[in-house]
Amino acid sequence: MPELSYRDAIRSTLIEEMDRDPAVVLLGEDIGQYQGTFRITADLLNRYGSRRVIDTPISELGFVGAAIGMAMLGLRPVVEMMTWNFSLLAYDQIVNNAAKIRYFSGGQVNVPLVIRGPNGAGVQLSAQHSQSLEAIYAHVPGLVVAMPATPTEAKGLLRTALRGNDPVIYMEHAALYSLKEEVPDGEFMMPFGVAEIARPGRDVTIVAYSRMLHIALEAAEILAEDGIEAEVLNPRTLRPLDRQTLVASVGRTHRAVVVQEQWRPFGTAAELAAAITEGAFDLLDAPVERVTGADVPMPYARNLELLALPHAEDIVRAARRTLYRETAETGGRADG
Amino acid sequence: MGDVIMPKMGDAMTEGRVLRWIKQPGETIKKGEPLAEIETDKVNVDLESEEDGTLVEILIPEGEAAAVGVPIARLARPGEGEAGRPTGGETRPAATADQATADRAAAAKPPRVKPAPATDAGAAEPVRASPLARRLAEQYGIPLSSIAGTGPDGRITKEDVEAARAGRRQAPAEQAPRPAAATPPPAPAAGDVPLSRMRQTIARRMTDSKQHAPHIYLTVSIDMDPALALRRQLNDGAPDDAKISVNDMVVRAAALALRKVPALNATFTGEAVRHNADVNISIAIALPDGLIAPTVYHCDRKSLWEIAVDARALAERARAGRLRAEDLIGGTFTISNLGMFGVEVFSAIINPPQAAILAIGAARPQPVVRDGQIVAATIMQVTCSADHRVTDGAEVANYLAELKRLLEHPVWLVTSPPAAGRADA
Amino acid sequence: MADRATRTSSNEGVAAGSVATTDRTGIDLTDAVAWYRQMVIGRRFEEETERAFRRGKIGGYLHVYSGQEAVAAGFLAELRADDIFFTAYRDHAHALFRGSPPGAVMAELLGKATGVARGKGGSMHLFDVSRGFYGGYGIVGGHIPLAVGAAYALRYKGGDQVCLCFLGDGAMNSGGFHEPMNMAGLWGREGLCPLVVIVENNQFAMGTPVSQSSAVPNLAARFSAYDIPAERVDGMDFLAVRDVARRVITQVRAGGRPQAVEALTYRFAGHGAADVFQPYRTKDEVETARARDPLAILEARLREAGLLDDARVASIGEEADEMAREAMRFAEESPPPPPEDLYKDVYGNGA
Question: Which element (helix H / strand E) includes B281?
Fold first, then answer.
């Protein structure tokens, strides 16, 4: 198995699928001559030409809508969203068209579309460029929401997206592009709606995806030093969501901490917590804890930005609270 | 100036609704005069004034409910001006018909006037426990109220239950177990009949009993021919209001048997078994929309005729919906008789916090072997359900044997019991 | 003739292989009677839907096409069977003119399982992909980028099909118009956007007249910003519309470069069925417009050419009424979608 970075895992999958299927075309801002903001599409214009690697104007509504039209006609467009922050300009197209056309046409036409790009906070990009928007997409029936956390997931989930029939919101994380690991060879696919136990444990289940998976694993290490065996569960896709594995894990550990980078109210953690309560109420020994980003627009100052993001220590404290090893915090935390 | 509070008028009563104010502000009232008509879980009762005075202010209007212990009106004593010092009417808890809200309000702020001390589990605050802890405690048969919670606000956790099971952390508990807050009800469907308050109370109490009291059941057959013969003699020529029923005889026998075997005349408090000094027997009475078990007090000390009079009056009040508050409390043992419906034998659910209940079947002619001959006898089957936390099968068997002996030798029902039996009176 | 046969084969209402005819001014009258009949069917169908709406048989919104028939008819008359089109929510006539069975269209409006979209879309979301109809859409301007992308896909796949995109005058003021039009202009330079944009200028965006919503009231002129050739046509005159459509579609098919046509037309009915009082215009104005009813204009031309007479007009009217009634009967007798359809077709992967 070759060692690949998260970035190369995405790029190589695009190349493999473009080589395999001429219906795959790429659209986005500065993906061609500029080589892509995060160099995911480096050299692809040269390889496939401007008909397949389409540099678009700064028109998120326009090129997402056009990609939907292409998908309806049988192409497999992959839209690069320079960052997901800009997707709000195309939200109508994604929610009102991509997600619904199959349904309101009575199943006459599919929209096999992938929209991919980095989601979440970078470093000091401030309020408009530091958002985690997965919840607003995971809310919408008709969409798939994939949140790859590792190079293997990046490859496996992207290939599944490109071979499927549905619009897929594929959210990368800029902080992960250089992460490396050995990735399975060949036409490896990872099914949607199948969670992974990233680390087994018996005392508390920590649910985390995308970049948060890595701080959850860090937290599990810290907890282990204290004799607390945390199970870390990575849902991989939020829609479809693997409720079964989630509930089964909490059924074993009786305690859960759910982690998200986004704002606390109405977030994915709330849905995950509800799923746990619905499926494992009688088996819970403590309220489900949420570890989330602060409920504020992202500040610029580095110290404030760090305060606004979840850290491993926050997860450790939350896990200890579920085990009654630590009393509930009273104020102070920005995510309250 | 004094507050009139919503009285607790039944074991399980947590709130009552003011149906009607009989007195209006400004009217004078004498002690014992009815002030208002109150609807409780089971009955409508007149709320009688506990003192002379003038009704100053109504705090809970007609149609609204209030938690037990909450002031519902203010009364000025004779000599006090109506404009007496304000007693903080602004702090009155919101009256609401919503049971859960009232419960929460009552739990959140203790009423200014403390309600009469609860004699049973009905008034207990909900026990805080994690769902897992509740499940485990039920599985292990450990009452939650006997476990000290170490979580936030005393929440009982899995660890606490495990510790209690290992005998490490038994806590003094003040209250008997109470079921967890109900899960949200499913959406109503066509054909659903909303639960009446009586139905709700029955549902809650019977579920509580079945979930928390491990029942044991023992049945005996009693030859009723001697008792029936005595009854015929006693009733012969007696005026209607002095006639006694089979049930009256069973009540009397059950009470005397309890004196002999006091283990069944008990209350389970969670931490202890309380042997009750009085023998007060609750008699289950079927009503169109449910079941009620008002109490005949001191059945061990009353004659068969006194019991008959009391039981008849209770039944009339129950059917008229006019039971008094004291009718509904104080029972130490219950008798449920379905014999008049032809039921031969059945098992009853213990009426918590009592420790036992007697289920009486029909007295029917049956062939029995007597002196080697098959002869006809009138046999009544009686089943006693008892709380195994309080007593054991052998004791229940003793009790039933004594009951059988008394009914088969009914002369004991009409003669004074031996002096030794009065030791606890 | 082969081309003509192909063109009309998608339309069950228009006889294939008709003989070419012209009037005395040289305007082509081929199939014009058949299209007159189609337009009458469209009108009577809409009148039937309005009655059904008032009786509560049709739910939600209902936007009828009466008055604008010549626009859709003129363009769809020139569309090849393998061409495709998109439109907004005033879409009943487009489906009928393209040959969707009137019963299936009416059933969709009544929310029945036999509807063109199985009762999932309703009036605003008619679809008949088998006939190249890629949908009616309910968000003003939201379907325009889809048509641009679809046009790209047609050419990317190597065919010579074209994509029509019908839109209203109001949609031209939405962002959904400008971003994709700019992209269409860019892609057209490479011959990669065989798109015909048809602005159905019915004078009102709901109740706001064009003069109050567009800084440049000449809507065709606004396409120059995106290097898209555009022209205007009398949208009440079927023959004129068809003439322009034939030329424009031929050019776009050949060059893969988008073109636009602003058809000046008028909506006789309210914006939607709920637009009863129409405070934004006078009855006189509507009456004046009705004097140029597209059905009457075409009828006069065909009478003049000797292709229609009283008897034929009457029989077409009766036939159209009967078709509308039959469509309603079919729709009413059709079953509603089964409950298990609720969760069907949310995902193509069957997830």
Answer: strand B281-283
Position C122 scores a pLDDT of: 96
Which string of b and e fits A128-143 if b means at least 16 CB within 10 Å?
Answer: ebbbbbbbbbbebebb
pLDDT at residue A66 in the model: 98
- What DSSP character marks residue B127? P
CB contact under 8 A, A254 and B132: yes
- Chain C residues within an 8 Å CB radius of A102: 345-348
Contact between A171 and A147 (Cβ < 8 Å): yes
Using CA atoms, how far apart are residues B217 and B399, in angstroms rounded to an integer? Answer: 12
Beta strands A180-182; A289-293: pairing state? unpaired
Calculate the CA C231 to chain-centre distance: 18
Look up tokens 């009607």; give the residue: B20
Residues of B involved in catalysis: 388, 392
Average pLDDT of chain A, as a whole number: 95
- Taking Cα atoms as reference points, which of A109, A124, A43, A104 lies closest to residue A70? A109
CB A59 to CB C179 under 8 A?
yes
Beta strand extents in B141-279 (DSSP E only): 215-223, 266-268, 273-275
The residue among A187 and A10 whose pLDDT is bigger is A10
Q: Residues near A90 by Cβ (< 8 Å), separated by ≥ 6? A: A60, A61, A63, A64, A65, A81
What phi, psi does B333 have (nearest 5°)? -165, 145
Amino acid B110: pLDDT: 36
H-run or E-run covering A151: helix A151-163
Per-residue H/E/C for B295-315: EECCCCCCCHHHHHHHHHHHH
pLDDT digits 0-9 by tens, C95-114: 999 999 999 999 999 999 99
For the stretch B366-408, pLDDT in tens is 888 888 888 889 999 999 999 999 999 999 999 999 999 999 9
pLDDT band for position A250 (cuts 50, 70, 90):
very high
> Do B307 and B313 contact (CB within 8 A), yes or no?
no
**How many angstroms separate the CA atoms of B194 and B37, rounded?**
23
Q: Which of A62, A63, A166 sits opposite C347 (nearest CB)?
A: A166
C-beta separation of C187 from C194 below 8 A = no
What burial class does residue C279 get, using C-beta atoms within 10 Å of its C-beta: 0-12 exposed, 13-18 middle, 19+ buried?
A: exposed
For residue A139, the chain C residues in CB contact (below 8 A) are: none
Q: Starting at the earlier edge strand, list the strands of the sheet with B2-5.
A: B2-5, B71-76, B53-58, B28-29
Which residues are A116's β-sheet partners?
A80, A170
Closest chain B CA to residue A322: B151
- Retrieve residue C47's tokens: 């009148």
Give kind and range of the element (H or E) at residue B358. Answer: strand B356-370
User: Is there a contact between B150 and A284 if contact means CB atoms under 8 Å apart?
Assistant: no
Phi and psi torsions of C224, nearest 5°: -65, -25
Nearest CA-CA partner of C65 in C267, C328, C221, C228: C267
Q: Is B159 touching A (CB cutoff 8 A)?
A: yes
Give A174's DSSP letter: G
Question: What are the C-alpha distances in Å from A242 to residues A279, B70, B407?
Answer: 12, 49, 66
Q: If you average pLDDT over residues B179-194, what whole number do you get?
A: 56
